[in-house]
Fold this protein.
Amino acid sequence: MVQAGVKAVLQYRASAGFRAQLEAARPSWLSLAIVEETDRDGFAREMRDAEVLLHVLEPVTGTVMASAPRLRLIQKIGVGVNTIDVDTAKARGIAVCNMPGSNSQAVAEATLLLMLATLRRLTVLDAMTRAGAGWQLPMDSFDGMGEIGGRTVGLVGYGDVPRRLAPALRALGADIVYTARSEKPDAVGRWRSLDALLSMSDIVSLHVPLTPETAGLLSPARLAAMKPGAVLVNTARGGLVDEPALVEALRGGHLRGAGLDVFAAEPTGAGNPLFGMDNVVVAPHVAWLTPETLARSIHVAMDNCARLRSGEALVHRVA
């Protein structure tokens, strides 16, 4: 039986453009409330009669679910569901769905951007040029820069993002190696074990989900085993890396630099020691965030809301 209407709540500080995209795609039977992450009271109020939660990054805990008695679907805007208490959702009969592939193009491009910006020390050049001092840079500053061409790039994981990224890296002249649970017949590059990849790669880029098995994947020992002078790029999840050990590897010069879109704790305060390093390029977990990604995401979300309303099977259901 088709319901008369469905209420959804988006917990996110949505831009005017995102709101306009949502309004244009929203069917007449869908009521949509948009609540900023910091508005705890407003979120609790809207969730009392919500059937769908459109989830971005704010953790969905058992307490959130308990305060939403009509909740039937947690729709992740993105891929990773590590911020959702999936076990509690299962126990309460709440479906959890994600959107594999919706942000892959954006993340692949942002990963390449971080590689280039870190290798070429773009943030340092930008700041000094804006200060009128770019033409007085010591020439030995350029000794620590470099190109992607001729370097070995190691991709940890080989899902949708690396499948887009690897051909671009090869076109730039990089040698590609990757690690995954098994070799991929159509992969660009050669399979290597994680430890072998770390020891031989000039650039290591992380592309695996955060799970109990992958938490702390780049431990102090593995960071120490990376090739001296390597660059680490992380657009996946901050919890994959032992952050204090990364700080020490960068301070001590074992690693050349890092390009980071994600951190162990988010949002990350100004006191994070990574933020004071001029060999680190950072962004606030927005590698996925483009209008194109949001358009693809909205399409999936509206489809699943329609399926929930009509009783059809949901797409990309993970729980």
Summary: The longest strand covers residues 6-11. The longest helix spans residues 291-310.
